Amino acid sequence: MGKQAVKVGLLGLGTIGSRVVELFESNLDMINEKNDLQLVLERVAERDPEKLKSLKIPAEKMLTSAFELVKDPNIDIVIELIGGLEPARSLIREALENGKYVVTANKDLIATHGDELLELARSRNLNIYYEASVGGGIPLIRPLKHSLVADRLNRVVGILNGTTNYILTRMSCEGLEFNAALAQAREKGFAEADPSSDIEGRDASYKLMIMAGLAFGCSIDPAQVYVEGITGITVGDINYAREIGCVIKLLAIGEKLPAGIALRVHPTMISQNHPLASVNNEFNAVFIEGELVGEVMFYGRGAGGAPTSTAVMADVVEAARCKEGYVVCNGVEKKTTGTLYVPVEDLSSSFYLRFLAEDRPGVLAAFSKVFGDNQVSLDMVIQKRRVGDLAEIVLVTHLVREAAFRTAVDQVMNLEMIRPNPSTIRLMI
Ligand code: HSE
Q1: Disulfide check for 132: which of 84, 100, 105, 378 has CB 3.0–4.6 Å away?
Q2: Pocket test for ligand 1, best of 161, 182, 207, 308 (most atoms within 8 A of CB)
Q3: One domain, residues 11 and 74
Q4: 13-38 average pLDDT score
Q5: How far is the C-alpha of 343 from the C-alpha of 348, rounded, in Å?
Q6: What residues make up the domain containing 405?
Q7: Catalytic residue list
Q8: From the alpha carbon of 161, which atom of ligand 1 is closest?
């Protein structure tokens, strides 16, 4: 007598959804055999009928209405790969209210409404699985939820966005300016038609919020995450970084400090010897730091349909094992509320600062005095390039509280011999 089928419904045939269908076609026997399951891809819902036509599944299994699928009493597990907040949120709510387990890759939704949706799942004795929402094919959620639970985790640092890492790598290796590198990322399929969430750092911030919430066991308020993207980075900055032994990476940094949680995403100069410096192109890597375990590093393909489809399918397997009673449905993700945050202004960093100044006597003395008056100590001063008749000045500070540095920079920019719009990048050496 065969096992009872566990019926899966898929919402969305985009980059990940179409690869999940392929994975069902290519690996289902192996997956079922290995896990003692009988998973079946029962129905697929996609708004665009043209995309549905390409599927090798019977017509009655195809739907253009996602809401019809989440109400189908035959479906046990719903995979949500539509993305965005709505209608994804309503669809997931509806699926849970209709008794279905949910698997999603939707980082925006889990980061901003995850607590509410998980609470609904818990109240129905169901669960939501979201391994694919962070780090594509790299296992990150399951290690945080299971393998590392016995330790106090104090730090999560990583490259969590493949598109921006690809762009920065091309800028660094080929000397391409930002727009040319973005165009190349698009050609290679590493940047979406609208890459704003990636290049402005929001994508990485959602992933950081999800990881930090699990690592530190607290609810995260999106408004408390400092986010700065890579659109202002130039090849000039990358070359200066190289000169001082650094590379520029878009880092997501979550820290549990004595005064609270600090969460930030920003371009960062890191030493060429730092392990994250050699994480290139579309690859992602994350360090999770625990008091007892020390540093644990995860590395792999953080974007792309094929790697991400494996994370989706692993979640489907976990949901199915739960449904079949192999494991207890563990929907517990207890998080403290009332989280205290440390604003970025209160953190200390070394800073790189590049600006243009008139090339005449007293300029260096004038800006040096402003930094000195604000207790900002300079570690390096480079002046070697001219831009027209202006001098390009590059400074690197010693460790300084961000608020003090910003005050000093504002005052320097008010000096009449200094031109506005400086470039500022934090260092993490
Ligand atoms: N666009 C993301 C990235 C992948 O470039 O990393 C999905 O989160």
Answers
A1: 105
A2: 161
A3: yes
A4: 96
A5: 11
A6: 347-428
A7: 207
A8: 6
Cα of 303 from ligand 1 centre, angstroms: 5
pLDDT above 70 covers a percentage of the chain that reads 99
Asked if 135 contacts 252 with a C-beta cutoff of 8 angstroms, the reply is no
Which tens digit of pLDDT belongs to each residue from 106-157? 999 999 999 999 999 999 999 999 999 999 999 999 999 999 999 999 999 9
pLDDT given for residue 192 in this prediction: 80
Amino acid at 327: V
Segment 380-402, tens digit of pLDDT: 999 988 999 999 999 999 999 99
User: What is the distance in A from the centroid of ligand 1 to the CA of 133?
Assistant: 9
Q: What is the pTM of this model?
A: 0.96
162 lines ligand 1 (CB under 6 A): yes
What is the whole-number distance in angstroms between the Cα of residue 159 and the centre of ligand 1? 11
pLDDT digits (tens, 9 = 90+) for 80-105: 999 999 999 999 999 999 999 999 99
Question: Relative to the CA of 107, which ligand 1 atom is closest?
Answer: 8
The reply to whether ligand 1 has any atom less than 6 angstroms from the CB of 203 is yes
Residue pLDDT, tens place only, 232-273: 999 999 999 999 999 999 999 999 999 999 999 999 999 999
* pLDDT tens string 54-83: 888 888 899 999 999 999 999 999 999 999
Domain co-membership, 88 together with 195: no
121 and 159 assigned to the same domain? no
Instruction: Please name every residue paired with 423 in a beta bridge, in sequence order, or none if there are none.
Output: 354
CATH for 413? 3.30.70.260
Tally of domains within the chain? 3
Q: Which atom of ligand 1 is nearest to the CA of 160?
A: 6
Residue 212 belongs to domain with CATH number: 3.30.360.10
Q: Are residues 317 and 364 in the same domain?
A: no
Task: Identify the sign of the CA torsion 183, 188, 193, 198.
Answer: negative
pLDDT of residue 385: 84
Q: How many angstroms is it from 135 CA to the middle of ligand 1?
A: 8
